[in-house]
Structures are given as structure tokens and as C-alpha cells.
Amino acid sequence: MKAKLSILALACAAALSTNAFAEQVSSTIVGKVTDSAKNRVFAGASIEIVELKLKTQTNLSGSFNFKQLPVGQYTLKVSYVGAEPLVKTINVQAGDNTPLSLVLSDNSMEEIYVRAQRSGQASAINQKRVADSIRSIVSADAIGQFPDQNAAESLQRLPGLSIERDQGEGRFVGIRGIDPNLNNVTINGLNVPSPEGGVRSVALDVIPSELIQTLAVSKSVSADMDGDAIGGTVEVKSVSAFDRNGDTATVSAQLSQNSLRDENSPKVSGSLTHLFNDTLGIAAAVSWQNREFGSDNIESNGEDEVEQRFYDIARERLGSAVNIDYRPDFNNTYFLRTMYSKFSDDEFRLANTFVFDGEDSEVEAGSKDRKETQTIFSVAAGGEHIIDLWSIDYQLGYAQSDEDEPSALFYDFITENSSISADLNTKIPVIHQDEAVTDLSRYELDEIAYEDNYAEDTEVSVKFDLSRQISFGQYIGEIKTGVKYRQREKSVDANIAIFDGDFDNLTGSNFQGQTPDWGLGQFGPAFNRKTLREYFDNNRSALTLAGLDSELESNGASYTSHEDIFAAYIMTRINIDKLRIVAGLRYESTDFETQGMRVELIEDDVSDIEKVVNTDWQVEKDYSHVLPSINLRYEFSDKLIARAAYSETISRPKFEDAAAFQVIESKTEEDDGEIVTEREAEVGNPNLAPYESTNVDFTLEYYPGHIGIMSAGFFYKEIDNFVVFADVADTPTWQGFDEVVQPINGESATLKGMELSWVKAFDNGLLIAANGTFSDSEATTFLEGERFETSLPNQSDNIFNFTLGYETDLLNLRLTMSHKSENFEEIDGDMLRMEDDHQQIDFTSKYYVNEQITLYFNVVNLTDEPFYNYFDKRNKNAQYEEYGRTFELGFRWQM
Question: Which residues contact 223 (CB under 8 A, 6 or more apart)?
């Protein structure tokens, strides 16, 4: 703690020791940029005092300030991409100055704000243009132009971003092809814990797009940002009354249909902002959706096993946000930000697993019946104050996420059948089978598993930032320092009961239901979900519990981890003519503790011993990093901007990988007069080191004058300690084991690439947006004592996005395409599992009935693109899954 306080003291001393701006400083200038009707504010407008070479930009509420300017007359210049520049003479007088109300030309605004299509693009482009770091932004208006269900799908349109899908829906966001676990996600400035057990990546499908004001992705970091962001930082900001500049209200309703399951799904949402007066405002939003759909799946192990899967899924989303802002004057702001999201996934899965082993071949028919609910709640309170040359920001936050999976039920039925065969060297394997395979009376009930699992992730944080305007000779700049403390706890509680006998000769025919409509071949008869559930509920007490297996699975999957992070930083920002420099140093100290069990199942046939041995296991470790960063922005002209960035970042290992758990199975038996013991284990690794990355970026941005941008960028990352899974049997810790699967730190990895982007809105209503990311990675590690080289896990070499839009006073049309090339997933035995390239096309259309009412029709996954994984070669199936198209019809009313 003394070391931490010393760092804070040094940072504050550095700030206090800087020379004052100038003794003649006398007044602070504040203002706001709006249209003539004061209905819209303009975020990202560039504001310049020409004579002093001072620049700033408007925030989301359109406001700006210049601190303590010398008395005198100055030329104020306002520039906004898509509008004519505004030049205004201002007089700075001693004492308080009246807030400036700056109005951009009505003529130019008419071109931008015919409808929201170009409005959203203009807002995002201007915020990107004035940013200190390399950022990409999606505004609320732009989010509404796509048929996206959640925040993840909205982000996939940005340069360098891709998404990982689950059942066809976007869940996790990858930046420049990097694993989503290496990103940082914040909601209203709070670090968001993950509701899923074991991971750090936040599934952004739990955040409905209607609750979002802006989505921003920072690809380069500054010292005042969290250091755990190798991929980047995703910043979600919810609605605020001052961002809307007045009272607003919206209501939307939608009905969608999925072609694969022919189900109708409703969705409703609404938002409200109200300014009680010039100082107090409230914003609220709510969204609800119940989506019923499904998927058809076939997957294999690449050698001797194929599994058919049929999914029926119902996903319900409920999201709400309430934000309160109190601004008694421009120099003082107080805020309260809350967001709540609840996402439930109700899934019934039928599966037929074919195991090919000659005369011993068999078929397993199974079912999965579970409903899991994920919630995220965050609340942040804080303030921002300007006192003479000083700015003070502080925030206290609490965020809690959990995943509840009660009463999950699994059935397994087995039959022997030597007639089955299949060719696995094809995209969609065809299974050859006789009639006996489809006779459920031949399937004996083998096992029932019942699970009650719960994972919780909470974080409490507090941060304090202090900045001061100073002079560097003839140039005016800012120095900033601050501290942040985060206390996080991740716990996973697994309760698994396995029943493996005394089923009274039950067969599959006792639970037979209707034959599912499965589009990938012959599936055969299925089980009735209700009948399966009723049998277990009525007979659970009479079933034979496999106590040792249940204990092994439950204790081995349960753990609790604590993580305390203290950070302190100091940085400076200065404009030297056309060059802006943002440089700083961040210190982060991490205290990590994990508690779990070493669980060993001992089966000794020689000594007739069968037992489970549980041993508590607790590991503590701490580590620290000093992380430098520098962002350079050079403005050749209003239209041409160059950026460069250097930073060092980290990413802490996934909680599941670093958890204190060991699941060991030991079997001793006599073989030809010799006693043989086989031991296998699956274990966590609390001693994993965090990923460490050195990052370099260069970009060039051209703003042609109307609503548009052309940009090109190069990036390079050198990553150490990336994590892979390996068999560490016969290493010093695991002598005598036949197999031990454990996450370990790899040797090194590099990632380099280029980003290209072009956005253009034409006067005739045409909009074209295209971007591409071209990257290459190399990763080196050791597996079973041998050097092994691959690309980075989950890293795609090529990512493309294309949007073609057209808009008139009455009509808005958009056709969008997103493409992600193949990527390496994992090493499976001696094979590489690869995710094939994925290309999805969506269509959206809007008809403006009047100024208040809009009708829309969308088609999601227009070409019915499947999901496909393969082993080694593209024709060797690992997983093939179809989702069908989704059609959406709805309306939106706005005040």
C-alpha cells in the first residue's frame, strides 16, 4: 500500500509543480453548438480560437469550454464534417462570460438531416475526427439504420471489428481479429464483469441496441484508460437527457419470423428524455423481446463420431436504463447512470450421436433441456467540476453480472448397431443406417444428469482524476493524473447430479415425441420434452445416484477468484501548432487469489477401493506493470489528419484458465498379472502470467468536405504469454500421468495488418460505406515437448464490411454485408480445428409516413449463410449449422 500511495503522491506532485497558465488569465468561455431550432446538438464539432491556437471539441451534449483565457477579442472557428464552417468574433471579458450559443447553417443542416441515415454517419465521423486516440464510433442514429438485435451486432459494421455468433446471433466482439477475451468493455465508464462462468469477455447480446446512445471502440489507449485492452476498449454509453437537448419520446414495435422454425417473435421498446429545467434532466429507456427460433446442426470429431443436433430456442431480452443529470452550471455536473439487462436462453436440444467402431458401433440418443438467465446491473454516480485552471472528475461504481442455470436436465439413451457408417470427409456428413436406428424401443436409458449451476461476477470501483491547464513555453496544454481501484470477485458454483442405473428397463419409446423437421438429412423420431421432465420430477427420489461421479463433477467445476487492481497514472496533452501530443505512464498492480479443490476419483479394482478425495487448494499471487503510451495527431489541414500511437497493454488470463481446480481420475486394475494404473487430469493454472502486448499504430484520415471519410492504417502487436491448452503429462509436476490437459503460456505471438475504410454520403441520397482489415499473425508455443506454430486463436486474416444505402424524404434502403475469413480455433488431438469464413448479408428498409411515424421491414441473413467448422482441410466436418432467414416488420413513433 505504501508503494501505491507513493506513486499517487508523485503523480500529484508532478501536476502541482507545473507552472501556471499565465497570470493574465481571467475568464472561462463555455458554449453549445445546435441547429437554429435548438432541436439537435452536434457532438464532435471542432472549436478553435485562432489567435491562441487553442482547440477543443464538443461532447455528446454539444457543449465545450476553454478555461481561463486572457482578456481580449478572438476569432472562434467551428468546423463540422458535412456543414459549412462557422466563424465568429468573441470578446473575453474579466469575470464571468455569457455562455455562447453557436448555430450551424440551416442550409447545410438540411442536407445532413433529411433523415437519420446521414445524420448518424455525420455524428460518428465528427467524433472520430476530433478524438485524441484511434477510435471508431457508432451513434444512436446509425444503430437504428441496421437490423441489429444487440450491441455486438451494431459494432460489427465498424472497421476492424467482427463478431462471434451463437445460434446465429452476434455475442462477442473481436477487434482486429483478436480474441474477445483480450478486450475491455465498459458501460458508462464502468468495467463490466462477465455473466458467464470462467470468461472475461462480455457477451454484448445482453444489451439491447435501443438503450445505447453511442458505441465507441478505442484501438489505441492513453494512460487514463485501463491497461487490460490488448484488442481495444469497447465503450457503451446509454441515453442522457442533455444528449437529446430537450424532451423526446420514442416507441417501437416489431414482429419477426424465423424461416427455419416458422415462429413469430414480438419486440417492443421505448425511450423518454425530459429536461425539468436548464439544470436537471432524466432519460429512461426500456426494451423487451421474445424471440423463438432454432438451428439444425451436424458435427463430428473428425475420426469416428458424428452427432446430429436439433435445437428449439426461445430467447427473451429485457433491458432498461435510467440516467439522471444535474448541472447547476457549466462548471459543475453530477450524474447517476443505471443500466439493467436480463437475457434468458431457453433451449431444448435433441441429439443423435453415432460412434463407429465396427461390431461395437453404437448410437446414443440424447436430450438437453435447460433455461439459463444472464443479468447485468450497473450503477455509477459521480461528478465533474471545473475550478479555475483545474478539472476534477470522480466516480463510484458497482456492477454485478450473473448466470443462473437451475434444473438443467440431460438424458442419454444407447443402442448397439453395427450397420451404421458415414464419410466424415465432407461438409455435411451423410449417415448410412438401417431401420433399427430409428426404433426408439431399442434404446435403453443409460444416464440422466441434473444440474443446478450459478456463476456470479461483481466489481466495485472508484476513480478520481485531476487535470490542470498549464503552459509549455508558448504552447498551452494540460496535465492529468488520477487513481483507480477495482475490487472484483468471480465465483462458479456447480451442483451436478448423475443418475446411472435402476431405470426399470425404460426405453426411448416411453418418451417418444414427434419427428423433428431437420433439414440436414434423416433425423428419426425424437423425445417429448414434457414427458422427459415429468418422469424425472416424479421419480427422482427413486433413481440411483452415481455419488462419486456427481461429487467429482460438482467440486471440480466450482471455484472462487478474487482480483484487486490498483492503478495510478500521469499524462499530458499539448497542441504544438498542428501537432497534438497525448503521452503518459500508467501503473497497474494486481493482487489475485483463487480458491477451489483438487478432486480425485480413485478406482482401484485390485484393492476394491472406489472413492473421491477432495483437497482444498488456494493460490495467491501478485504482479504489476508500468504501461507507457503516446498518441500523436497531426492536422495537415481540416481535411487531412495523420495519427500515430505506441502503447503497452496487458490482458489478464480468463478466470476459468487461472482457477484453482484439478479434476483427476485414477484407475488401477490387473492386466495379464501386472498391476496397471492409468491417471488422467484436467486442471487449471493459477500461475498463468498475463498477456503482455506492445502496440504500434499509424493511420491517415481524409475528410473530403461533405459527409465522408477515407482512411488507411497500419497496426502491429507483439504479444507474449498468450494462453494455449496443452498436454503436460510427464512434466515434473505430473510425472506418471497418461494425460493432463492444462492451459499454459505460449512463447510469443505477433499480429500485423492494415485497415482501409471509405464512407461517402452523396447529395442524391446514395450512401456507400466499405471497410476492410487485412492481418496476419504468428504464434509459437510448445506442445508435448515439440515446437508448434499457428496463427493466434480466433484471429481472422481478413474482415470486410460493405453498406449500400439510399434515402429520400420518404424512403430509406440499406443492404449490408459482413465477411470474416477463416480462423484457427484450437488444437484437437493432432488436428487443427478451424472456423470457416462467414459472410452474412442483411437488408433493411424504412418508409417515413410522416415526421413522427416510420414503418420498416428487415431481412436478417438474407442468403441463409450457415456456420461451419472443419478439421485441417475444408472438406473434413467439425460442425455445420443452419439458422435460416429472419424477417422483421415494425413501426417507430417519435416525438
Answer: 569, 570, 571, 583, 584, 585, 586, 627, 628, 629
Which long-range contacts does 752-755 make (Cβ < 8 Å, 24+ apart)? 752/714, 752/715, 752/716, 752/717, 752/776, 752/777, 753/176, 753/177, 753/714, 753/715, 754/712, 754/713, 754/714, 754/715, 755/159, 755/160, 755/176, 755/699, 755/711, 755/712, 755/713, 755/714, 755/715
DSSP state for residue 43 in the 8-state scheme: T
1-113: CATH architecture: Sandwich (2.60)
pLDDT of 289-319, one tens digit each?
A: 899 999 999 999 988 999 999 999 999 989 8
Amino acid at 64: F
Under 8 Å between Cβ of 218 and 134: yes
Cβ neighbours for 32, distance < 8 A, ≥ 6 positions apart? 41, 58, 61, 62, 63, 64, 99, 100, 101, 102
- The CATH code for residues 204-411+422-894 is 2.40.170.20
Whether the Cβ atoms of residue 365 and residue 443 lie closer than 8 Å to each other: yes
* Phi-psi group of 508: left, alpha or beta (phi > 0 → left; psi -120 to 50 → alpha; rest → beta): alpha
d(CA 742, CA 733): 12
Give the dihedral of Cα atoms 507, 509, 515, 518; nearest 10 deg.
10
Using alpha carbons, list the distances in angstroms from residue 63 to 39, 56, 101, 454, 609.
14, 10, 10, 45, 75
Residues 81/125, Cβ–Cβ less than 8 Å: yes
Round to whole Å and give the CA distance between 308 and 299: 7
The radius of gyration of the chain from alpha carbons, rounded to an integer in Å, stands at 30
Cβ contact 401:375 at 8 Å: yes
Which letter does DSSP use for residue 450 in this model? E
List the beta bridge partners of residue 160.
none
Could you please report the per-residue DSSP string of 393-439? EEEEEEEEEEEEEEEEEEEEEEEE-TT-EE--SSSS--EE--GGGG-
Q: How far apart are CA 202 and CA 214, in angstroms?
A: 17
* 3-class SS letters over 8-35: HHHHHHHHHCCCCCCCCEEEEEEEEEEC
Those residues with Cβ within 8 angstroms of residue 529's Cβ, 6 or more apart along the chain or in another chain: 348, 367, 369, 513
Closest CA to 150 of 172, 175, 183: 172
State what percent of residues in the chain have pLDDT above 90: 49
Question: Which pLDDT score, from 0 to 100, does residue 885 have?
Answer: 92
The pLDDT of residue 895 is: 80
With contact defined as beta carbons under 8 Å apart, do 842 and 864 qualify?
Answer: no
**pLDDT < 70: residue spans in the chain:** 1-26, 37, 39, 95-97, 105-121, 139-150, 205-211, 245, 781-788
52/752 Cα distance (integer angstroms): 40
Instruction: Write down the domain spans for the chain.
Output: 1-113, 204-411+422-894
Distance (Å, rounded) from C-alpha 304 to C-alpha 675? Answer: 30
DSSP three-state, residue 306: strand
| Same CATH fold assignment for domains 1-113 and 204-411+422-894 | no
684 neighbors 661 (Cβ within 8 angstroms): yes
Residue 317: all three cell numbers together: 431480452
Q: Measured between alpha carbons, how far is 274 from 241 in angstroms, rounded to an integer?
A: 6
Give the tens place of pLDDT for each residue, 412-463: 999 999 899 999 899 999 999 898 999 999 999 999 999 999 999 999 999 9
Number of H helices, E strands in the chain: 9, 48
Burial of residue 621 (CB within 10 Å: 0-12, 13-18, 19+) is middle
pLDDT of residue 210: 65
Ramachandran area for residue 23 (φ above 0: left; ψ -120 to 50: alpha; else beta): alpha
Q: 847: Cβ–Cβ under 8 A, 6 or more apart, which residues?
A: 810, 811, 812, 854, 855, 856
Question: What values do phi and psi take at 605, rounded to 5?
Answer: -70, -25
Res 585: pLDDT: 97
Q: How far apart are CA 323 and CA 337, in angstroms?
A: 5
**Which pLDDT does position 597 carry in this prediction?**
95
